[in-house]
Amino acid sequence: MKAKAKGTVIDRSRRNFLGSAALATAAMVRGAVYAQEPNNTRQAEDGHSFSNPGPENKSLLEANPSSNLPPPTDHGNVEPIWYSFDLAHKRVQEGGWTDQVTQRELPPSKDLAGVRMRLTAGSYRELHWHTANEWAFMFYGNARVTCLNPDGTIFIDDVGQGDLWLFPAGFPHSIQGLGPDGCEFLLVFDDGMFSEDDTFLLSDWVAHTPAEVLSKNFGLDRSVISKLPARDLYIFPGSVPPSLAQDRASVEGSESPISYTFKASTMAPSKKTQGGEVRVVDSRNFPANKAIATGIVNIKPGGMRELHWHPTSSEWQFYVAGKARMTVFFSQGNARTMDFNANDVGFIPRICGHYIENTGTTDLVFLEILKAELFADVSLNNWIRHLPPEMTSAHLNLDETQIKSIPSEKLGLIAG
Ligand code: MN
Ligand code: MN
Predict the structure, then answer these.
(1) pTM for this one?
(2) Peptide bond into 269 cis (omega under 30)
(3) Among the options 37, 368, 390, 409, which is catalytic?
């Protein structure tokens, strides 16, 4: 009965809305909303129209109420904007595991692919290289990383929670878990079809090179060559290394003049508002990284990453903590809203408008990742407040006082 009463109210307001010529402009502006209202009103009047007597996956529905009951502003069959690492195949080996969300899992994501990895204390991600640039964010623990430049200079450093690295495509590198409990991190590659299973491994190469060639190349006796691994190692256990200073002192040759790590954990926010804070890391503050620009975003409960878009890039998101709701606007009346939880991936096609709202009771932390040298976004508020007021008024039917109450600065994050 309650649903019916509510339906009547909606119905009446709809008739008033349609009957008022004065609101015709508003109806045109809000065309997408209006187009769906009659249908949704009927559903509310019927009361049981939202009911689903058939099968349902309760835990998925509870994690994503915006899919189950989309806002009436959503419309159209659009490409997916959500996936979760909790659905990905996990490759477990002694010493750790890995899983990945690439273009295979999330087909519209052609620019970027993500991999998670866990290494227990002392365990190695084997010495390797690959076709794509590798960007990383440490969630947990500590790791020692190495990277060799083509000129023979070597980079060695330790990375802790909240820190980043960037290894250029083709540069050989390694990752090793440190004490007390190894590490877990996210890798992002600037190629949607990248696969962590297709990298060039040291052990794989020596296992597929004739023994006499290896003997000649290394200047080692043939009998010694038989000790080399016969198959790939990929992730394998090892001993926790000595201190960073000891490891640096033990290597031959010069240290890399370029730093491939970035200590984002100690970085001051690039922007801080009542809604939260964001740390932007790109080639301006991390010069070795010309491939992937990132916003590390922290939004307070009720706060929101404002309506915006990115002029040159698609966006690949990783949700670290909290709960979020995002709507992506695809143009031509199409929009899709979904909910995001920790370990989920979000995707926004290039130039599509979006917001991200903290719908939980704790801080929302997510990574806004662009395949770009510089982080760039266009703020809707910033745009409509930097136009002649009569122009904004003509489009949105707002008077000058109302327009002036819209934030003029690009806030990035808006308080709840
Ligand atoms: Mn790698
Ligand atoms: Mn964005």
Answers:
(1) 0.88
(2) no
(3) 368
